[in-house]
Amino acid sequence: MKKYNILAIASSFVLGGLGMVSCNSVDKEAYAADQVKVEKFLQQAATNDNFQLMAGMMANDQSKSGNVGALGEKIYHVHSRTNPVLEEIAKKKSVKLPAGMGSEKKAIVDSLEVKKGADFDKTFAEVEVKAYEEAVAVYEKADKEVVDKDVQAFIDQILPVLKEHLSEAVALQSELAKPSEQGRP
């Protein structure tokens, strides 16, 4: 009887240990999967920040409308503050961030560079609406999928700001789409 009890106890330790190893393996896999999502999100967020920094500067330089310049200044100010936070999180997570904005965003910046005045303003508003729709979608997806607490805290802080900028860009686009009142009696 004692041999049976000892075997039963030993078996439960072995099976329990295997369960812990199995759980530990699952935890490592979940962590690794989350790290892939963290890396992708941080890289996308950094690309977006780099683009918005450039677009914001351009709005100050090339716009005809004070509202475009004001939005550009606001965009630049916010993204100049989020960029270092992203870099800090990336460093902590051992993620290499892109130095630029990617070829797609660079092409948009190049197309904006040749525009001036009202033409720039209209195009800038359109570009910003699309860019913020994309950014909000990236952040919302990461908010649902990423478990990492540092990334979640960043998303919680920045997502409402991105949504606000999207609303402002939509309002600006609507304002600029209205026919001008100038030249009317």
Describe the structure.
This is DUF4142 domain-containing protein. Pfam families: DUF4142 (PF13628). By secondary structure, the protein is mainly α. The protein has one domain: Up-down Bundle (Ferritin), CATH 1.20.1260.10. It contains 5 helices and no strands. It has helices spanning 2-62, 66-92, 102-113, 117-145, 149-177. It is elongated.
Distance between the termini: 108 Å
Return the string of H and E elements. HHHHH
Supply Rg. 25 Å
Please name the CATH topology. Answer: Ferritin
Which structural class do the helices and strands define?
Answer: mainly alpha
Q: What is the overall number of helices?
A: 5
Give the secondary structure arrangement, pairings included.
Elements: H1 2-62, H2 66-92, H3 102-113, H4 117-145, H5 149-177
Helix pairs in contact: 1-2, 1-3, 1-4, 2-5, 4-5
Give a short overview:
This protein is mostly helical and 185 residues long.
List the keywords.
185 residues; mainly alpha; Ferritin; elongated; DUF4142; Ferritin-like
